[in-house]
Structures are given as C-alpha cells and as structure tokens.
Design brief:
alpha/beta, Rossmann fold, 2 domains, 3-stranded parallel sheet, 13% strand
Length: 278
C-alpha cells in the first residue's frame, strides 16, 4: 500500500463534507484489520517520505517500509540497490537529431521545489527559450518565466522531445536521501538531457558527470555547451550515457526488489505471502 498522510481540508474533514476524501481513515481501517488483527504481511510504500520516524508501523511485526531512496530512513526500511542489466535497444542518434526549439523545459508541480527552482532553473530560464508545465499556483514571483499550466500525461513526451534539457528539481527531503522521481526517465527516453543539482545525494548514480551542476550560472553554461553540440555525436553519446543510468528503474529490477521484500516480510509473519506474478 502507498502511505497516505493528513492533508488539511481534504482528508481531515468529516466524511461526506465538501471536498472530503476518505483515503486517510480508510488506511487506518485496512491496517487495523489486516496488519494488526489478521497479522497479514504488509508492505507500506512511503512514496512521499511522509511516514514519521516514530510511527508505530516502523516497529510492527510483519510490516516493512519501502522507500525509493538510495539512502533510506533508519530502521526496518528496505531499498533494493540498482542492478546493472544490458541496456535496451534505443536510438540515441535519432533522438539527438530531433529539432529541439526549447533549450530548457520542466514538467512537474511546484510542491516544495521553490528553493531548487530559484537556485538552478529560474536564472537560466530567464535567458533561454523555455517552458514550465505543471501546477504552479504561486508562480507570480517569477513574472519573466513561461508557465503553461498543467498538461495531460500524453503531452509530456512531446514536450520533452522538443526540449534540449531539463533540470531535476527535487524537494529537499528527496534530494537528501537520493530519491529520484519519474521525471528523469520521462525526459531521457525522449532524448531530453537532465541536468542534476550536485546537492542530490548519490547524484552520480542518476546522470553522467557532465550533467551535474552547482548553480544557475553553471546551468546556463551547460545549456550553451549543449546547444553547441546538439544533433552531433557528443549529443548522442550523452543520451546513451543517460540511458545506461536508467537501468535501476527497469520493471524487472523493481519486481526483484519486491520479491525480496515480500520474502523478508513473510519471514517476520506467521502467514505465508503470495509470489509476485508479472
């Protein structure tokens, strides 16, 4: 299950009231019934890193906490180290050859990203062709930048295919433990090169060294360099290197991790657990 947390005005209100969602109290019911009463082996995926360090679920027998981080939280938290597998068949040369009128793009919502946006994205975006797509309700502080609002999922890849680069903007609680979002593989699979802030833990596991940046000025320098090699062999080689860094996100790797986690959870519980079928 994916961990839910209190959100004022949404799941902390009375059932049936305007705007109410039942995820929080339904979560409590499910955990009480299955994990406590029936002692069913349980995996909680703390996708947003909102589960408190003092939570009872970190100490409950037969419950394991999963995080998609390279440096997960202390305690009985499980993360699968990336496994290197042969890269799939890609066409970096064809991706590099695509016309890319946008020098810089970002797809994603504002949530807890203002600091990273201010430091890495905004200074460079103000000086190149760019686009920011997503939910940014407090964008007035950047009046010179182009915010296009939320876009449908099927529009994400076409935007990345028009953009030369993006910047991997993470909330601090993600960056501190090396928890990457899906933005990296959405961009790379479309041939959009991801620049990664050096403050991200384990950043070298996510992008090649040439794409690691320390501030907005360095982002701008890399943009000028990448625009100069766009469409050529160096561009294609960088896309190839980025594709190799995506191996840890393969479905087979994640299923292997879940298999081991299920086995570990079942060993701590009196009940058997079913095998994952793919």
């Amino acid at each position: 299950m994916e961990w839910r947390w209190p959100i004022s005005g949404r799941n902390t209100t009375r059932c049936g009231s305007r705007g109410h969602t039942c995820d929080l109290h339904r979560q409590r019911e499910l955990l009480k019934h299955y994990s406590l009463f029936h002692r069913l082996p349980t995996i909680i995926w703390d996708k947003d890193r909102k589960l408190a360090a003092t939570s009872e679920w970190r100490r409950t027998r037969g419950v394991r906490i999963a995080e998609a981080a390279l440096s997960p939280s202390p305690g009985p938290t499980v993360y699968s180290s990336p496994r290197r597998r042969p890269p799939g068949r890609r066409r970096p040369g064809a991706l590099a050859a695509l016309p890319r009128p946008l020098t810089l793009a970002y797809v994603g919502n504002q949530y807890d990203r203002d600091t990273a946006f201010d430091r890495y994205f905004a200074p460079a975006a103000a000086r190149v062709e760019h686009q920011v797509a997503g939910k940014w309700p407090q964008s007035a502080r950047w009046p010179d930048l182009r915010f296009s609002g939320r876009i449908a999922f099927q529009e994400v890849e076409p935007l990345y295919r028009r953009a030369l680069t993006t910047v991997l903007l993470l909330p601090e609680r993600y960056a501190a433990v090396g928890q990457m979002t899906q933005r990296v593989f959405e961009a790379v699979l479309a041939g959009c090169l991801p620049l990664a802030p050096a403050t991200i833990a384990h950043v070298h596991d996510f992008v090649p060294d040439q794409l690691i940046v320390h501030d907005g000025e360095q982002v701008l320098e890399r943009l000028h360099w990448l625009r100069g090699i766009a469409g050529g062999d160096q561009h294609a080689e960088l896309i190839t290197a980025c594709l190799r860094h995506l191996e840890q996100f393969r479905l087979t790797t994640q299923v292997d991790a879940l298999e081991r986690l299920l086995a570990d959870t079942a060993a701590a519980s009196p009940r058997p657990v079913a095998k994952v079928v793919t």
